[in-house]
Amino acid sequence: MLTGRQDNDEDEGIPLSPLIDAVFLLLIFFLVSTMIRKINRDIDIELPESTSAERMMPSDDNYVIGINEDGDVFFEGEETTIQSLHTEIREVGVKEPDVQIRLDVDRDTPTHRVIEVLDLCRFNGLVNVGIRTYDEFYNTR
Predict the structure, then answer these.
(1) pLDDT tens, 65-116?
(2) Could you tell me the domains of the chain?
(3) What SS3 string covers the chain?
């Protein structure tokens, strides 16, 4: 007898393999995009070593100011001048006065340049400034 319906037709449901593929692609995209952000903020410098530094977890919720051994200044990984840095720091101080500033300084940087940048931060009301030092747990040479 024919009933009009065959016994091997079952309700297929929603196929999950395309959904799983899409989720993995999104995961890979977000992992790669966050790594690129970290790479762009760092500059190539030799960090000073410290035995008494307070260990803090790395954070992306801060602004990064870098100074290389020649005294060149970088803001968020982009080279800038002291005058431009002053303008950018002033804007940050107005928008987010409690924001953290991470200062990446080469061990051979002239001291007067470091003091100049610290004074700029203090002048613009940014007092939550930390200087990054070499730590074998977080850094590699």
Answers:
(1) 999 999 899 998 889 999 999 999 999 889 988 888 888 888 888 889 999 9
(2) 16-46+59-141 (3.30.420.270)
(3) CCCCCCCCCCCCCCCCHHHHHHHHHHHHHHHHHHHHHHHHHCCCCCCCECCCCCCCCCCCCEEEEEECCCCCEEECCEEECHHHHHHHHHHHHHHCCCCEEEEEECCCCCHHHHHHHHHHHHHCCCCCEEEECECCCCCCC
